[in-house]
Amino acid sequence: MKKYRVVFKPKGITVFAGAGSTVMEAAQQAGLPLEALCGGMGNCGKCVVRIAGGAGKPSAEEKNHLAPEELKQGYRLACRAKVGGHLEVFLPDPSETKAKGFFKEPGKGLKLHPLVEKTYIRLAPPSLEDQAADSSRVLQGLGLKSQNLPPSLCRKLPRTLREADFKVTLIHDERGLLGVEPGDTTARNLGLVFDLGTTTLAGYLVDLTSGKLLAGDAVHNRQAAHGADIITRLAFVRREKDGLQILHRVLIDALNELVEMLLGKANCRGEDIYASVVVGNTCMQHLFLGLDPSSLAYTPFVPVLKEGVTVSAAEMGLKLNEDGLVHVLPNIAGFVGSDTVAVILSTGLDRSRATKLAIDIGTNGELVLGSRERLLACSAAAGPAFEGARISSGMRAAPGAINKVFLRDDIAFSVIGGGKPEGICGSGLIDAVAILLETGIVNKRGKILSPGELDPSISPQLIRRLLRHQGANAFLLVPASQTAHRRPILITQEDIRGLQLAKGAIAAAIQVLCRCYGVQAGYVEEVFLAGAFGSYLNPKSALRIGLIPPGLGERITPAGNAAGEGGIKALLSRREIKRAGKLAEKVEHVELAAFPGFYELFAAEIDFP
Amino acid sequence: MKKYRVVFKPKGITVFAGAGSTVMEAAQQAGLPLEALCGGMGNCGKCVVRIAGGAGKPSAEEKNHLAPEELKQGYRLACRAKVGGHLEVFLPDPSETKAKGFFKEPGKGLKLHPLVEKTYIRLAPPSLEDQAADSSRVLQGLGLKSQNLPPSLCRKLPRTLREADFKVTLIHDERGLLGVEPGDTTARNLGLVFDLGTTTLAGYLVDLTSGKLLAGDAVHNRQAAHGADIITRLAFVRREKDGLQILHRVLIDALNELVEMLLGKANCRGEDIYASVVVGNTCMQHLFLGLDPSSLAYTPFVPVLKEGVTVSAAEMGLKLNEDGLVHVLPNIAGFVGSDTVAVILSTGLDRSRATKLAIDIGTNGELVLGSRERLLACSAAAGPAFEGARISSGMRAAPGAINKVFLRDDIAFSVIGGGKPEGICGSGLIDAVAILLETGIVNKRGKILSPGELDPSISPQLIRRLLRHQGANAFLLVPASQTAHRRPILITQEDIRGLQLAKGAIAAAIQVLCRCYGVQAGYVEEVFLAGAFGSYLNPKSALRIGLIPPGLGERITPAGNAAGEGGIKALLSRREIKRAGKLAEKVEHVELAAFPGFYELFAAEIDFP
Questions:
Q1: CB pairs A-B closer than 8 Å
Q2: Which of A533, B94, B279, B300 has a CA positioned 20 to 30 A from the CA of residue A234?
Q3: Whether the Cβ atoms of residue A380 and residue A364 lie closer than 8 Å to each other
Q4: Among the partner residues B128, B305, B585, nearest to A593 by beta-carbon distance
Q5: pLDDT, tens digit, for every residue of B101-147?
């Protein structure tokens, strides 16, 4: 058999692989095993590499996972690409993989006009002929006549001007001067986006001059120690005397840690961060600003603050430049937060002629329906199933979670980060239940049938997975021998009930929005699925379980981290901040609890299609 | 002799006084001696009382001291008014005397539009049909769409709204909402003016709803412990590591003490003070804001900050309402402060068709010349003589100071607060020197002549007062037996030198301003003399010593506490604050040190006319 030289970059490890073997096999030979969550079936799309040299034509699976542009650049799935000549294989940089595809170029098409800008200026020193005050001198430098200058800035002004011989960089925003730095520091102007999730706090460090993302990272929201979800945290605030202060403090500390991590990754300094944008659900926004969110706990669920606000980084205790600004985007309602505003910024629903739907699924699903004419939003209390909580083997979409399930003769699955599974996350659960529905193991009502009730055509490998668990039927997804913790991963009858409630809430919410908007669901031309969940979710499975109305399967677009992307847009363009302000006013909030017939619709959507 | 009943109010003490006796004599009879600094000659104007009943026609002296309006209301000089029927005599409330005539009705003619206003509003509570956020609800109540709300305000919002059943008072300024109070508190809206002098810190408590002055008071500027004048304090800041912080802290503490005093007097609460305006010289303004004033110490004397700024009371550590605002008026130059801007607001130079001059005399004299076409300002380093410093028996215009000197057969004088004198203040010194010039005891060059050199017509009582002191001639104003401290009060040759330097600096400054403006001094139609000094100063004496150019004597108007009055105007009307901002830009600063020929002019003005 003819052998070809395969060089794996960047390490330069070289092997000789037989013609027709896969690049993945060559990688194993080189001691560089690639992620192959689907077992090398071309299904999971995790083994993307870039290949230079003869590797044959892309397979159908590759065309499925990679854009024509990416294929043109040499991106391939290692499990499908076959060695057909000497090759160079560029293995992905782990951090690059994380960022790749996560954002759809947030700065694209934006005219850069960041929240905070820098201008270098050489001022004339004062003289008896020009006795202008230091303040007037710098304001004139910016072409401003007057401004309510913060005393903290004025305190630093005389020394900075004189030490730098009146050659300084002025830091300014829309409202005027924020700070003055000696010399020319225009090359260092950084911004941050914080995406405050109930479970995860994500941060993105951005170069405000180029608009480029320098680093992204996330930390666990340690408020979870005082309540896993919003409702429990609200109870904590109402119960504990210093509850609000505790949650606020824990959050700020975690964000400062996140800032450190991002700065470390990008090798930058916190004092160069002058701008920051915060998005998040309304409760998190309140906790960030130290506002009492208690009124979100009871009807009519009104927030304390809706409008966007700009506060100083120093006032918030954030370790950015002390003159830096933090802009908190506005929210829409008590359970439709600024993250939803950011999703609209990113998906452009407010600029679309066609009617579109954006869904950001979490413990609360937020939905926005509409076009540039009108936008409706609601929050659906889906419950925790989509986040893998209160599911027998559930976990969130983190390393170790089964995030995709495939049916071949038997069950196959992919695990986030590879290795043995520890549990199953929302998208995996939806895949699994879709398969169980498709095979008839679970019926329309959500019941797991007993072996005797099943269609005889069902593969015996599947039937063998049925067992009894706590007095009900259950499906063995992964036997104990194949899991990380040596406990089986099951789909129980309770798990399916939880999923039914969750999908029923979202499906009913879509119905309500469509009715309020006066359209049939089929009229919706595009469905954006935002967030990590939306990226992992298999649209076919979502359709199969009835999460998405029939007919919309082909119209689903994963929107990536749409909230973070919208936040970056706002950071890079003041017009986007204004747009966010208008959106928060324009979007009509639909309170599902107040919609006549909502509970009937919800009950009807609990069954599977 | 016919006797009439004279009742002294408010105590109700009654005496029967002979027809034709003076009210002052009746008061002595009642054991209620009145201040009679001039010995009851109708000269000092200190014995003002209000009389109901027959007291004859006002004398020439009374017409001199009291406005027609005051005479109509029954105000009289007790030493001149004669008992001609049964009388009620209203003795002045000591605190009222202090305020009376001090301000020329600061709110007069102003459309009240105070810095901070209150609006009572009954909001609809939220419901499922009206889920507006607390913030949006109150902003709608004010007719505002959006605003950058301070988090501190939002923190209090939900509880205040709910405890008051959504009936609240909104506190707002031009830029939007500042605070929310439960119920209707519109009747309690107070403001403060701080006039920051180098020696004295004055404060005025004002009712922002009615525009009325509730209380005025002053405390010693305890920064004096670190330097009696600006130059010494600047040296302290530059020498001591924490000098700036020390002076800032001492100032804020003293202002808080002043606030307490004012609140006590008016029986009000600090939490009802939402607005405050600060005027003062540029150095004091810098120390108030914690800005380093060091650059005022050397040429070209530029300040750090010129523009007006609004800061929060909480940020400044002032014990007003924590959401309250402090507006610091803008300054004109390093030695022409916001107190001068306030003097212009109060005297209306910027609205005058005619060319006018305003002089605020202290250690530094600030002068403004011009009309609505153009305004010029300068600072003249008069030295300390006008404030009674570095004068052998000098003291500032405080109780115990001789503030007026009269010539009869012999010397007579009035003492602030009555009693035996402790020293002499600026206006007294000017009177005394004017008399010595008029009598020929002092010649044009400022020399105190020896008895042998004098004109023989001079009263022997005056000649007897000439003596030798430290090797030079001196004039004995008050012998030791008649002073509070049993030391004589002298006018020494050195004192006259000090006064010559002081008056020469002011007179030269007037010359420079007139030259820059392109007019002769005689062209000036009105001369405002601002401050306590200006009120005590006898215009004839000022002319006699050459402080004011010849021909302007009849055109002098004492402007009272013009700086404080201008501050109150700004507090009561946002238009005045805007006017102040424009003034600071419009007024052209003339740097005397840079004016060609200034020192020659100054030297020429040292001689007396």
A1: 154
A2: A533
A3: yes
A4: B128
A5: 445 556 667 889 999 999 999 999 999 999 999 999 999 988 887 88
Q: What pLDDT score was predicted for residue A254?
A: 96
Cα–Cα dist A567/A341, whole Å? 9
Both B77 and B16 in a single domain?
A: yes
CB-based burial, B343-352: b 16+ in 10 Å, e otherwise: bbbbbebbeb
Inter-chain CB proximity A307 and B146 less than 8 Å: yes
For chain A, the domain total comes to 5
Nearest to B263 by CA among B254, B272, B253, B274: B272
- Residue A338 included in any domain: no
Residues 6+ apart with CB under 8 A from A475: A432, A436, A441, A448, A465, A466, A467, A490, A491
φ and ψ of B37, to 5 deg: -65, -30
**A38 and A67: one domain?**
yes
Other C-beta atoms lying within 10 Å of the C-beta of residue B130: 11
pLDDT of residue A98: 38
Q: Are residues B20 and B64 in the same domain?
A: yes
Q: Quick one: pLDDT at residue A96?
A: 41
Q: Which of residues 277-296 of B touch A (CB under 8 A)?
A: 289-292, 294-295
Shortest distance between the Cα of B136 and any Cα of chain A, in A, equals 7
Q: Which helix (H) or strand (E) holds A14?
A: strand A13-18
Residue B1 confidence class, pLDDT cut points 50, 70, 90: confident
B31 has a pLDDT exceeding 80: no
Tell me the HSE value of A501 on the side-chain side, using a 13 A CA sphere: 14
Residue-number span of the structural domain to which B163 is assigned: 117-182
Looking at residue A56, what is its pLDDT?
Answer: 84
Give the residue from A130, A159, A182 where a domain finishes: A182
The alpha carbon of residue A185 is apart from the nearest alpha carbon of chain B, in Å, by 22
Provide the 8-state DSSP code for B424.
E
Same domain, A471 and A486: yes
pLDDT, one tens digit per residue, over B278-313 is 999 999 999 999 999 999 999 999 999 999 999 999
Q: What is the separation of C-alpha A323 from the centre of its chain, rounded to a whole number of angstroms?
A: 29
Please indicate whether, in this complex, the C-beta atoms of A158 and B593 are within 8 angstroms of each other: no
Check CB contact under 8 Å for B304 and A154: yes
B484, B400 Cβ separation under 8 angstroms: yes
Q: Is A101 part of a structural domain of the chain?
A: no
Minimal Cα distance from A149: which residue of B?
B309
Q: How far is A388 from chain B (nearest CA, A)?
A: 31
Domain CATH number, residue B223? 3.30.420.480
Out of A457, A481, A499, a domain closes at A499
Cα dihedral: A216, A220, A222, A228 (round 10): 130
Compute the radius of gyration of chain A from its Cα atoms.
27
Q: What is the Cβ-side half-sphere exposure of residue B265, based on CA atoms within 13 angstroms? A: 20
Cα separation, A462 vs A313, in Å, equals: 57
Rounded to two decimals, the pTM is 0.80
Residue ranges of chain A with per-residue pLDDT less than 50: 95-102
Nearest of B279, B327, B287 to residue B304 by alpha carbon: B287
Q: Which amino acid is at B369?
A: L
| Same-domain status, A473 and A390 | yes
- A375 shares its domain with A417: no
ipTM over 0.85: no
Query: Is B314 at the interface with chain A, CB within 8 A?
Result: no
Query: CA of B84: how far to CAs of A72, B6, B51, B389, B425, in Å?
Result: 117, 10, 12, 47, 39
Mutation to test the B interface, candidates A137, A278, A306, A310, most B Cβ within 10 Å: A306
Instruction: Give the chain A residue whose CA is nearest to the CA of B329.
Output: A148
Is residue A462 domain-shared with residue A548, that is, in the same domain? no
Describe chain B by its helix, strand, coil percentages, rounded to 5. 35, 25, 40
